[in-house]
Amino acid sequence: MSTENISELTGLVRKRGAVKGAITKFCNYFQEVNPSEVSTHILQIKEERLRETFKKYEELNLEVCALDPEADDSDKRALALENAEKQQVQQTTIPKATHMVTVPAGTTSMKSSTPACVLCKLPHKLFTCPKFLLLSAADRLKLITDKKLCKICLNSHTKKCRFFFKCDICKEKHNKLIHQDKPQSPVTLFTESSNKQTLLPTARVKIIASNGTEYHVKALLDSGSQVSFITKELVDLLGLQPKSISTPVVGICNNINNLNERVNVKLHSLVKDFTISTTCYLLDSIASKLPQKRFSLENLALPPNIELADQDFNIPSVIHVLLGADIFFQVLLPSEPSASLHEAAGENTSTSVSAVPVLRTQFGDVIAGSLPATQGAHQVTSLFCKTCDNTLNNTLSDFFKAESIPEHFSESLTEYDACEKIFRDTVKLDTQNNKFEVTLPLKLPLESINESLGNSFHLALKRFNNLEQRFQKDASVHQLYKDFIHDYVDQGHGTVVDISQYDISKDPVYFLPHHPVIRLDKKTTKCRVVFDGSMKTNKKVSLNDLLLNGPVVQNELLDILLLFRVDEYIFITDIKSMFRQISLNPMHRVLQNILWRDCPSDNIQCIQLNTVSYGLKSSSFLATRCLKELAMRYKDQFPLAAFIIENSIYVDDALVSQSSPELLQQSKQQLCSLLEIGGFKLHKWFSNCPELLSEVPKSQQHFDDIELQKNDAFLKTLGIHYDINTDSFMLSSPNDDNLMPATKREILSYIGKFYDPLGFAGPVVVTAKVIMQRLWQAQIAWDEQLPEHLLNNWEDFYKSLRKMSPIHLPRYVNLNNARTIELIGFADASSSTAYGCCVYLRVIDIIDNVKVSLLCSKSRVNPLKQSMTVPRLELNAAVLLAKLISRVHSMLQLKLKINNVILHSDSQIVLAWIKTNINTLNAYVANRVKVILQLAQSYIWTYIDSENNPADCLSRGILPHELQNHNLWWSGPKAIHSSEYIFPVLPDLPEVEDSSAFPSAMVCTADDSNLCLDFLDKFSDITKMKRILAYVLRFIQNARSRSHRNTSDYLTSKELNDSLLLIVKGEQQKYLQDTIRDLKACKTTKGNLKQLCPFLDVNGIIRVGGRLENASIPFSHKHQVVLPRESRITHLIIQHEHIKNLHAGQRLVLSAINQKFWIVHGINEVKKVIYKCIICFKLKAQTAKQLMGSLPHDRVNVSRPFQKIGLDFAGPIMIKQSRIRKSLETKAYVCVFVCFATKAIHLELASDLRTATFLACFKRFISRRGLPTDVYSDNASTFKCASSQLTELYKLQNCKTHQKEVHDFSSQQGINFHFLPCYSPIFAGLAEAGVKSMKFHLKRVVQKSLLTYEEMNTVLCQIEAILNSRPLMPLSNDKTDFACLTPGHFLIGSALNTYPEQDVQDLRNKLQFWKVCTQIRNSFWKVWNKQYLNILQTRNKWTNVHPNINVDSLVILKEDNTAPMFWPMARITNVFPGSDNKVRVVEVQTANGHKHRRSITKVCPLPIE
């Protein structure tokens, strides 16, 4: 390493850890180096220079960090290194003759202390001074100029600044802190809403993979990109090897991404003879599918004879390649005259047809540009810029929250308890000033919170600067915001403080960013400021992270609305600025600071918030808890107001109802008086009682409809309002002119804005939920167009929703002169849609008038992951009804006396389950029946038919426009409207009996004599068993003894050994009970343990007595623990030792086990376990065997030669095309035909492996040997694992086209083709033997010679003659007769290699001659039939009968050219027994799901059955 050239250290110094590591290595090398090899003086100089450079780097790095705390870490380090290098270079430019510089002792290179700030005189840099940062840019510049400071580093120096900063905004050479925006001329902006879609240019290109496979992919032509890109998915598919690089790529909005890989790709045109190579960088994804939305080509005028580069340019497709400007302008061709385009457009005079731009490229004609308005989408897709709508999550969360049933759980959470305790201990109520004072519920003490919280000033300042930029774009928002802040300060809710009083590095200080929430539709507060307590500081911690989250102390909106409906007279009011009426402890106000200034020319002020603020996690709890505290303290003095606060206030809205105007007036007076004690004021009054409003000023009255959703989302879809003019709830869908949502994101956002807390529109919401569920099930992209069937369903629903008329429901349920009040509930479920429940209030007055009102409903869609039966869905509906009715009943009881609660279900199975003892039901049903009985045990359950069940509307859904006139939904069954109606009594249903019963109560008894370790049975590893039991034993020990607790993070060997002995003890108690009983009774043991003289040790474990008492070995070696041979633990211990000893043999494993344990007949157990070891089995796997099957029918019956044949290929064989020198060499193949009856062989030479060539060979065979009736051939899968030379042969035999053409030819000729199982040469034994015999002669004759086609064909004919002359058996038993039966006898009457005999007789009668020939031929077949077949009777191998392989058995597929450890695993899916019912062929399925047929000689059954 050379330190003279500092530039070599640039890459090293960029990372502090790397530099320190280099120094450490250098020091170690210096300590270990041999002085005789390297000069010590030189090493000292190098080390000192390296340390000096690193020290200078550290100093400059700290200064850079302080100058710009928001700068990227890599930029800081690079800048520090650059300055360190420049200073080092200046120091090294001393003349070479000078080797040493003398420095006076009194001088120092750096000051020992940090200079004081020129503004506040404190010991810190100016650019870190909070007072300086709060100044306006003009004041900062003025201060820098007056103090004659550097405009770059903001320090004082006389020489040129050593820093090279540029302003991030204007790129000028000055610090960003003193940047001033130049005045801009006013610009008039004009925006126009357009639905046109811009089509980006795409083309289909061909890319060839490394294995030769062609892939056609869609490429995007982008002239705005300097480089090209490719997806990683495509690179993996092509099998290309990318190169590692590190290249930053700058995209939209100056976003920088580092790319680490690139690859060279060759692109081919599909329409022209054009190829181009380029370098592409790898990305996970390039863009969304293009185009955004599928459009029709009917309205586009395309030129005639156009040659499109992308035939599917109108269909959304994945972009795999992006071609940048380096390729774009190389493939671009000169444009042709546009007359043809105008002609094409002119052919159709319709205005809906428009021309589109066409680009000519080497890849073909590319369509790009704007599409007609009817074709477009209302979305924009931008490359390298993907945004996510965060409000969608909140919208859906609010939707499902409104659909849920409020539940309060009795479990107490520690955080809730701690928050409640802090509030009770610290809350103060100043009755003189009418003010609450609370403290923030912090998780840490206030004085130590700064250590965890960190610095938030710089981030808050940055957020405020961004807010000012927004103000510059929208002056109206700025004015509203400024008015809000001024009002905040004027009312004393905020105080301007001097920021210099804070020591940000020590004091617990937090600065809150803030942003506006604009609601221009509001008449009062159009702009509300929300403070962000979730902003992370430099320590990645926010204020909300350090605050406790208090419990919910108010009722849910469902409860409040139910009470709101039961009385005739009501008033509605709102607590004005509720959060801001609660004062915060002055000590905690330092955690609530905001930054503000009215205009950018002013200095930034620090405003300390004095009250509870929006945006903090605990604010809602503190505000609502103060209301509840008022009610608790003054409930005796103001009982009506206390009841209202506890039951009728939702956040800051009070919805109060009373039975008379007098009570309503008293409630108003008490509520105002009680809230005034706490400093709360009420406004926005409304009432249906004029007397109450007469005392309220008009300015404090409310005249608009009241929205019941307490958030800042404006309802644009289905929602419920309260109409103050008609005193009714209004359910409506606004008639806006927005386009119909068409993508998954838009539809979910639209449905998520449904707000129906009471469930009045339950049947409509269910339909929307089903659409949501189907969208998720379709697994389409967020911005992708819906499939046609889903789009049609959504369009029907959307149109129906737009046609829906407003529905008014009376708020008051009319309880005047009520005699009987009943709650009626209904539950129902549908197998395909959903399940739900609804609740009605039935009121009978004194004159027997009946009024039925819908109170509420809830629904759930059926789950997708778990397929459920209809009875179980009905049971879930009953559970939902029990939860809802329990909630409704508990709330209405506060004001009403409910006479009866009747619940209905149309499932008699569910009603029988409810009646059945839960001890006899299975777990799923019993758990839900138990919930029903707990919540609704005192209620009446009865049956109702489906036609009269209003909950059927929930389970099936209703279109929105049909809801208004659906009487069954709004009023319930007609029967209950009669005062004389008597609800049917539940019939005597049979109790459901279930064998899988479980006890609802358990009785536990402790028995020290027997261990119960059944929970360990689910583990299959003895090590894991030991560790789990060891932790259990440690927990028991720590629970029993508080003084000696073991809290270490690891288990000791003693703990593991104790747990193992305890496991073994449990196994001994299970399997050796008699032996333990005999040993305890001091009796002699019986059985196999008698020879070992066993005894019980102090822990009650059986050990071997033996004869090694006097041996000097450990106790555990002398007296081993006895292991039961039948125990599963014994097998796991053997398996563990087998693996621990690297899959050792039987004796070695048994020897290792005997060091601690003793197994009776241990060698047999060890053999049994090792035999089942899969790894060992693979290395010595044995294939399945079966008795050799009988010969097939075609082998043992008389047929003419070559009527039944076997077919196989051999080769390749190299031949030359001609006899000239250096002639072209090509491959040839031999097609072998074997007669099944006579073993005669016919050889044909094939010049290649085309199907036409094979058929030509087959035709030649037929012409010379006759037409066969059956042909048996393998499917060449055996070639798959052979050498690469057989690849073409394998492709031919497995080619579907080849097999089809062969079948077509065979079927025309009346030939039956039979394909044998894969990897089964035993099924084509004759053909394989024929190939072997042919190769035997061919190798010896040809050797290394290279023959022509004619020469090779001649040799093969001679080999064929020789093979057909091979003896099958002697013709007679005469010892002097040397003639033998050969295949040639069946072909020509004698062997093909015999000489012709002389004709010694002149036969006059030719007919007699042919009779003699026929007699000779028949004599050959007679010999074949009587003698040759008997030779085939014996089985030379596979003589034993073995069990058949069963379906579902796991096997290993044997592959001849692969190592055993890589043989694939498979499962038997089907077996094919022969005529003797013996399985010799099986069908297997591998891990990739493919199925294959294999002979049993190629599968190895695993020993796990």
UniProtKB/TrEMBL annotation:
Which Gene3D superfamilies did the record assign? 3.30.70.270, Acid Proteases (2.40.70.10), HIV Type 1 Reverse Transcriptase, subunit A, domain 1 (3.10.10.10), Ribonuclease H-like superfamily/Ribonuclease H (3.30.420.10)
Listed InterPro entries:
DNA/RNA_pol_sf (IPR043502), DUF5641 (IPR040676), Integrase_cat-core (IPR001584), Peptidase_aspartic_dom_sf (IPR021109), Retrotrans_Pao (IPR008042), Rev_trsase/Diguanyl_cyclase (IPR043128), RNaseH-like_sf (IPR012337), RNaseH_sf (IPR036397)
The source's superkingdom equals Eukaryota
Q: Where is the Integrase catalytic domain?
A: 1197-1391
A Pfam family found in this protein is DUF5641
UniProt cross-references to SUPFAM superfamilies, sorted A to Z: DNA/RNA polymerases, Ribonuclease H-like
Q: PANTHER family in the record, alphabetically? A: GAG-LIKE PROTEIN (PTHR47331:SF1), PHD-TYPE DOMAIN-CONTAINING PROTEIN (PTHR47331)
This chain belongs to the protein called Integrase catalytic domain-containing protein
* UniProt lineage: Eukaryota, Metazoa, Ecdysozoa, Arthropoda, Hexapoda
